[in-house]
Amino acid sequence: MSQPDYFKVLAPLLHMKDAVIIEVGAYDGKHTQRLYDILPSSPAFYGCFEADPRHARKVAMAVERLPNMHFMPLAVGEEMGKREFFQSQGKKPNTYMGSSSLCKPTRHKECFPDCEFLPPIEVGCTTIDSFCKTARVDHIDLLWADIQGAEPLLLEGAKKMLPFTQYLLLEVDQQPLYEGSWTKADFETFLQAFGHWEIVHEFEWDILWRNLRYEANCQHEKKGGRK
């Protein structure tokens, strides 16, 4: 199955100079490089996360020379600290290496019988709100998360930054494959409590949302409105 062309959709949207991007679940860093390629200029700030230690080293090497890159070998969830992390692998070598998650797999095994999960390991975890506060990031042009059912945890830890996030690209399963994962309807309900969001594009496994209150929220913030 061919990969969806995220970048054809994102390119005309990320036309701003000095973009602020946060990518969670970088896997091998290839999407990271593609995002840099479509931007009109180097981003002002790029936060990049990969929790799986098998991939984190590769990502670190792949992105180390990219301008304004801030790579963190951490998971991103609803709270800071140490968390269980469920690593995946296929029955055949070098397959299903990208299904690892903070969330315990449930129906994933039923839907993808060739994918196995190892005993959980412990990884460090941060939140979007905490990371942005420490990095002095006051807005996000694109928040992209592909973290295998843990997207709800990420959103719970991003409540302060969501009103100041312009585009949100999340993996959305048609049916929950991990403990606590959400469907499209669940995401829609959650997001409407943090602004007026509309769907820009639906990919096979991902949905891109736009925050229609983004500019107004940022203007309000400049006037000292954020608490």
Task: Provide the gyration radius in Å.
Answer: 17 Å
Global shape: globular
Q: What structural class do the secondary elements suggest?
A: alpha/beta
How much helical structure, as a percent, in the residues? 25-40%
- Give the spatial strand order of the biggest sheet: 3-2-1-9-10-12-11
- Taking pLDDT < 50 over at least 5 consecutive residues as the criterion, the unreliable ranges are none
Our estimate of the beta-strand percent is 25-35%
The total number of structural domains is 1
Report the CATH superfamily: Vaccinia Virus protein VP39
What is the residue-mean pLDDT, rounded to a whole number?
Answer: 94
CATH class: Alpha Beta
Number of helices: 8
**CA(first)-CA(last) distance:** 46 Å
Give short descriptive properties of this protein.
alpha/beta; 8 helices; 3-stranded mixed beta sheet; Rossmann fold; about 230 residues; 12 strands; 7-stranded mixed beta sheet
Sequence-ordered SSE layout with sheet pairings:
Blueprint lengths: L5 H5 L9 E5 L5 H9 L6 E5 L3 H11 L5 E4 L2 E2 L4 E5 L2 E3 L17 H4 L3 E3 L3 E6 L1 H8 L4 E6 L5 H6 L8 E7 L12 H8 L5 E6 L3 E6 L2 H9 L5
Parallel strand pairs: 1-2, 1-9, 2-3, 4-8, 9-10
Antiparallel strand pairs: 5-8, 6-7, 10-12, 11-12
